[in-house]
Amino acid sequence: SRSSIPSWLQGTLLRNGPGLFSVGSSEYNHWFDGMSLIHSFTFTDGEVTYRSKFLKSDTYKRNTQADRIVVSEFGTMIYPDPCKNIFSRAFTHLCNVIPDFTDNNLINIIRYGQDYYASSEVNYMNQIDPTTLETVGRINYRNHIALNLATAHPHYDSEGNTYNMGTAIMGLGRPKYVIFKVPADASDKEQKKPALRKVQQVCSIPFRSTLFPSYYHSFGMTDNYIVFVEQPFKLDIVRLATAYFRGVNWGSCLKFDKDDITLFHVVNRKTGKAVSTRFYGDALVVFHHINAYEDDGHLVFDLITYKDSHLYDMFYIQNMRQETSKFTESNKTFSPPICKRFVLPLNVNKESSKGSNLVTLTDTTARAVMQDNGSVYCQPDTLFEGLELPGINYKFNTKKYRYFYGSRVEWSPHPNKIAKIDIVTRKHIEWRQDSCYPSEPVFVASPGAVEEDDGVILSSVISPDPNISPFMLVLDAKNFKEIARASIPASVHMDLHGLFIPAASGH
């Protein structure tokens, strides 16, 4: 028999991802358009309970009521019924000039205070009850802070404060990126007031180009700094504003400029002041940061980078339906994800000799070279190739660390193994099983753990093989050996990201 789930593992793993791809006879074009399905795995005394519910967003309700897709998504632009009269059609066009984005929050689960939200990258979030998975209600960032977009990948500090980042396109003053903080005690005991009412702006960074802000999916944080990568993967604001007229989807408003540079902004998160050195690197595309920390006067940050922006194309539904071998063959052109380490020297002396490498750390080959104009050109060290959806032992977030975990990606949209990377030895170990697709691995530390990899890895596994029912996999994080698996007698979907909520102690 399968060995048992550790009794110390107590809590709920909440996960989010697209779960419904058609309504009535209408279908979505892109996997990131599917309606959010929230699911949870609750661990109590060696047992696992599974439940799932669709997020009851406004979008979900409107689509269900109409029995067809009536709200536009990232890759599917929807037009109103052509039989409506000309006046109401003109009005609808007007409303669509500045996109009022869907609230189909399908990417992640975020905690603000003690409130949990399903989130994507728009100004709406939906609060959910982490126990029942019921949708509590929708919240608009813009009622609390002037943002049109916000990430679904915040950071949490040891006190329980949440840091996140958003983009202010419309509104007063120049368009800018905004870093904000929601304090740990922001929740209201009576649950009447949203945690966001206590939001504080940490700082803002102006766009380097007013009509082309960088797309970003996450950012880096250390004990004292926020790192923002302003990449040449950009949102075309004019195209976004006119997407509806032109009959194009929002996804086509993202453009990669391979001839541009990438800027690295470093901001002190205590004072909100930016470090004055101009750090830059070659063009790259990044979605996920792995971790960041300070080391001997340097800021070290690890990212998963791509040479171009074709990743989104891979997830158009017609591509995902292809046989894997055919898909892999036709997608040899996709650039693989590469885990890279950048190192920025914090105390740059403008007098340093030009062309000299300012990085003095001995455990990396990353370089930071002084240029004639006083800016610093950063070249990364490659840590690993072929990994996405990275995770770490979150107790080491913002600190010097050694291990990260993730899904191995080998040119199919279905990751078929998970891996642990050791940054010091540059070696990795993997878990895989034939025709099994594991989700993003989540690390949970053992009680009283001292060592960074003392704990377990959780991943929900699905299979196209009807003989393999979905299961929750529990691995020993040290050696990636299987500790246990719990079969789930329900259909589980491929998802994106999640959050482990430890059970309240004292049970």
UniProtKB/TrEMBL annotation:
Its cofactor is Fe(2+). GO terms for biological process: carotene catabolic process; retinal metabolic process. Keywords: Iron, Metal-binding. It comes from the Eukaryota. One of its GO terms (molecular function) is beta-carotene 15,15'-dioxygenase activity. Belongs to the carotenoid oxygenase family. This is Beta-carotene oxygenase 1, like. It comes from Sparus aurata. The gene is bco1l.
